[in-house]
TrEMBL record:
Function of the molecule: Catalyzes the dehydration of the S-form of NAD(P)HX at the expense of ADP, which is converted to AMP. Together with NAD(P)HX epimerase, which catalyzes the epimerization of the S- and R-forms, the enzyme allows the repair of both epimers of NAD(P)HX, a damaged form of NAD(P)H that is a result of enzymatic or heat-dependent hydration.
Details of cofactor binding: Binds 1 potassium ion per subunit.
Assembly mode: Homotetramer.
Reaction(s) this enzyme catalyzes, per UniProt: (6S)-NADPHX + ADP = AMP + phosphate + NADPH + H(+); (6R)-NADHX = (6S)-NADHX; (6R)-NADPHX = (6S)-NADPHX; (6S)-NADHX + ADP = AMP + phosphate + NADH + H(+)
A GO MF term: metal ion binding
Organism expressing this protein natively: Saccharicrinis carchari
Domain named YjeF C-terminal: residues: 230-504
Family annotation (Gene3D superfamilies): 3.40.1190.20, YjeF N-terminal domain (3.40.50.10260)
InterPro entries named in the record: CARKD (IPR000631), Nnr (IPR030677), Ribokinase-like (IPR029056), YjeF_N_dom (IPR004443), YjeF_N_dom_sf (IPR036652)
Annotated residues for binding of AMP: 415-419, 444
GO BP annotation list: metabolite repair; nicotinamide nucleotide metabolic process
Protein name: Bifunctional NAD(P)H-hydrate repair enzyme
Family in the record: Belongs to the NnrD/CARKD family.
Length: 505
């Protein structure tokens, strides 16, 4: 699913109005019907307190109030209004509401006029103050109202976008900004870019997309560099196995991972690689780790380093279709040298670099130029910071990510609540599977194994990264059914990979 920029969304609204065709007031009505249905389903028989502003987001709120009132819900509407006139459609909806229920509305022009104490604790607050038309941080009356709402214990549902939140600007991170902290956000047609950033996404709560029928052909034709990964897309990418196939059809992966005291990294990455469907796997380990890997992962072949404890050499790379390197490696001088020599000797093998592989790159930046085109780097934010420097805010982080991928012509999987895969041309795919239980030791090693396994099976780097991240998160979500966010371990995630594949279908 595309994530369009605010101006593209405004153009999309206008295009739909002109070409469906539909009047803007009818489009608002359709949007409001969707919001009201969702509210009634989620909060059956609850009472609602709706804060509305003067723009079209407020218009939505006024229309939602009327629909809820028609269904005999108890609704209070608070119109927060400075001297600004209501938008044309908000004004029509205000008249319609007053005709059906003249007593539900109060208008406030000063903060003292809102009696927040009157709002029942079990009432659902609907936030329809500002939507995508926000042009500057909130101040004065609006700021005070938003601050006061955020102090209330009530659940808050935002229409389209939490009021005060910009769809994609770095103004979101300005100190002292007042932004609604929603429990749920019902977003029209597509999520907004700011939902995916830690700094601004924390305001959004659970978000749901409401398909209000905006013109699909217009969306299809829009240039776009931000996407949300969907199950449908992953299903299309999954390679089906022909009946008459054998292990030779599914590639041979090499995993270079583990060192003295960190053999678990090799075990976890190997197990994940095997569960991702690789035909053959060779684990390259220090001499000392031979017995460990053979007994922990009997399905894997081994390549034994002459060093007892660390990675210092590598087998003939031409045997392998994909290589994953980094988990638990350490950064000893000989390891760095071996890593550099390996980069010099890469042919056409697909490559994943993680953990200490990334740390070696950030401490030896000249090696970045040796990373083959289309390699996949899988940093967590700290590892990424070591590679690109400290960013000012999340939008800056995203632009550094794009610049880095374009400069070195690599894919980067930047891990987080919404892991983003950035391609060498700067296109970003945001992943929505996964949960905080996956923030656990070895979880990243498992992802390295999965992506390496998919690459070996001839998934393109873009496919392997996007599908691998999705599967990893899905397996984590399935593991959460048996475990808690605290108890989940990397092996729990791996044990659910099979079920994750089945869920894709
Ligand atoms: N245009 C359409 O076809 C549709 C629009 N819809 C709704 O319309 C919303 C966008 O409506 P608008 O463009 O009217 O925008 P808003 O409802 O977000 O309101 C913007 C208004 O507030 C003013 N404003 C901006 N920032 C301010 C600030 N910090 N303090 C005080 N005033 C400020 C603007 O000048 C403008 O008058 C969407 O988020 C969505 O909720 C929906 O009804 C679906 C259809
Ligand atoms: K809103």
């Amino acid at each position: 699913m595309k994530i369009l920029a605010p101006q593209q969304i405004r153009d999309l609204d206008q295009y739909t109005i002109q070409h469906e065709p539909i009047s803007s007031i009818d489009l608002m009505e359709r949007a409001a019907q969707h919001v009201a249905s969702e509210l009634m389903e989620k909060f059956y028989n609850k009472r609602f307190c709706i804060f509305v502003g003067t723009g079209n987001n407020g218009g939505d709120g006024l229309a939602v109030a009327r629909v809820l009132d028609d269904f005999a819900y108890t609704v209070k509407v608070i119109l927060v209004k400075t001297s600004v006139k209501l938008s044309a459609d908000a004004s029509i909806n205000l008249d319609r509401l007053l005709k059906t229920n003249p007593t539900c509305l109060s208008t406030v022009k000063k903060i003292g006029e809102v009696d927040f104490g009157q709002i029942k604790k079990d009432a659902i607050i609907v936030d329809a103050l500002f939507g995508s038309g926000l042009s500057r941080p909130l101040e004065g009356l609006y700021k005070s109202v938003v601050d006061a709402i955020n102090e209330l214990p009530n659940k808050v549902v935002s229409i389209d976008i939490p009021s005060g939140l910009f769809a994609e600007y770095d103004k979101n991170s300005a100190q002292g900004n007042s932004i609604i902290r929603a429990h749920t956000t019902l977003s029209f047609q597509m999520p907004k870019l700011s939902f995916f950033m830690p700094e601004s996404g924390c305001h959004v709560g659970q978000w749901h997309v409401l398909d209000i029928g905006l013109a699909r052909n217009f969306i299809r034709e829009q240039p776009c560099s931000h996407y949300v990964v969907s199950k449908k897309q992953i299903k299309k990418l999954r390679k089906k196995r022909p009946l008459h196939s054998h292990k030779g059809n599914y590639g041979h992966a090499l995993l270079i991972a583990g060192s003295y005291g960190k053999m678990g990294a090799s075990i976890i990455a190997s197990k994940a690689c095997l569960r991702s469907g690789v035909g053959l796997l060779t684990a390259h380990v220090p001499h000392w780790g031979y017995g460990i890997i053979q007994s922990a992962v009997p399905e894997a072949m081994t390549s034994i380093d002459r060093s007892d404890m660390f990675f210092t050499e590598f087998p003939d790379l031409n045997t392998f279709s994909a290589i994953g390197i980094g988990p638990g490696l350490n950064k000893k001088r000989n390891t760095v040298l071996a890593f550099e020599t390996m980069l010099d000797n890469m042919n056409s093998q697909a490559l994943v670099i993680d953990a200490d592989g990334l740390n070696i790159l950030s401490e030896n930046k000249h090696l970045l130029g040796k990373v083959p085109e289309n390699a996949i780097l899988t940093p967590h934010p700290k590892e990424f910071e070591r590679l690109v420097g400290v960013w000012n805010n999340d939008m800056d982080k995203l632009s550094r990510l794009k610049k880095f991928c374009q400069q070195y012509q690599v894919f980067t999987v930047l891990k987080g609540a919404y892991t983003v895969t950035c391609t060498p041309n700067g296109t970003c795919y945001f992943n929505t599977t996964g949960n905080p239980g996956m923030a656990t030791a070895g979880s990243g090693d498992a992802l390295t194994g999965i992506i390496t396994g998919l690459l070996a099976q001839n998934y393109s780097p873009e496919e392997a990264a996007v599908v691998g991240v999705y599967l990893h998160g899905k397996a984590g979500d399935l593991a959460l059914k048996k475990e808690s966010t605290e108890s989940m371990t990397a092996l729990d995630i791996i044990s659910c990979l099979g079920a994750a594949f089945k869920k894709i279908g």
